[in-house]
Amino acid sequence: MPASPLVQRIVFDIKRKIQVGELTIGAHLSAQKVADEFHVSRSPAREALMELADMGCLEQFPNRGFFVIALPHDSAENPDEVIPLEEPPEYYRLSEDWLNDAIPAEVTEKFLRDRYGLTKFQVVDILNRAAKVGWAEPKPGYGWRFLDVAKTPETLEQIYKVRALIEPAGLLEPGFTCDLAVLRKLKKEQQEILAGGIDTMPADVLLRAGIRFHEELIKLSGNAVFHMMLVQMSNMRRLLEYRSMIDRKRLVQQCTEHLQMIELVEAGNNLEAAHLMKKHLSGAFARKSPILKLRAPSSELDATRALSEAV
Hints:
By secondary structure, this protein is mainly alpha-helical. The protein is 62% helix and 6% strand. The strands form two sheets. Strands 1-3-2 form a three-stranded antiparallel β-sheet. Strand 2 (58-61) and strand 3 (65-68) form a beta hairpin. The protein is globular.
């Protein structure tokens, strides 16, 4: 029996972490650790680890868990393999209703089953997906709570204005650390995207790569408040990004600028990197800002989708 989409998603995410060096050879993984990270039960977490062991990426040691032993094989070896990482239709229906205030902030699984005509497994799956990207969380004891997100173009504009202030400033912090290992991982990921990943990687993987670039770079500033603010803003806008149709052609410019910033930081030219960061953020928003003047409901939805492309 083929693995469920949830298990395949966990397998793909862990493989990507190994490929980009986030998980190195010898890294330890346990079913509980994976379950906590992906907001799932131990059963799908363990199934994913067993599948990775069968692929030769992990090795299981009794009473010790799993350890990374090899890099995943290039996916090009099996070009016909389809990994269903894009969100299922019911996920988008739920997210649209939450964005449009069509459902209450606190719900039960039964409420969602009845509203959308879903099975218990489907409801749990989409709620876990929502929890993983930061716009839902289980309530203590019973039920679920949806969290505040950027629901309007005006909110997104405010987010990008703050980002254009703190991200360039982070590059100029006195405590900035040029961690070459981190920069190499970020560079490798951006290069892989430019080398063909733009056309082949699932949209959610591409979007997370963009978010990861900005969050890891600002973390090097040593300013924990800047990092905390950016992570919070990423969570607020992430729902819109994950449900939007990504403009893959625009990613060429985005990744190219990401690489330019990495190279400037590696060369010790943080001032020029900060100028490029401001241009990178403000310029992307400026190209979308005329849409903000439209006020029809459909236009507002188009505006939020367009703005969410500026990672």
